[in-house]
Amino acid sequence: MPESKGRDKASYTPPPEARTTKVAPSSPPWFAPVMLTLMVVGLLWVVVFYVTQQKYPVPSIGRWNLAAGFGLMMAGFMMTTRWK
Description:
Largest sheet: none
Helix content: 40-55%
């Protein structure tokens, strides 16, 4: 019995949307240093507040120095969620 010829298969070409690769936008170069600086300054703020027996960094605001220090740390932490 005679054998039939096989067909030549066309090479695979991906769909048009798969050909273009989109590069995810990265963070600006200043983003990571600012993020780390905020976290470190906040930590130092709280440490200075405790080491100086609650007199510094800003004596007039008293215990609100803790809120300021933790606020700086939280701002840095919130920036980590946007870092790419």
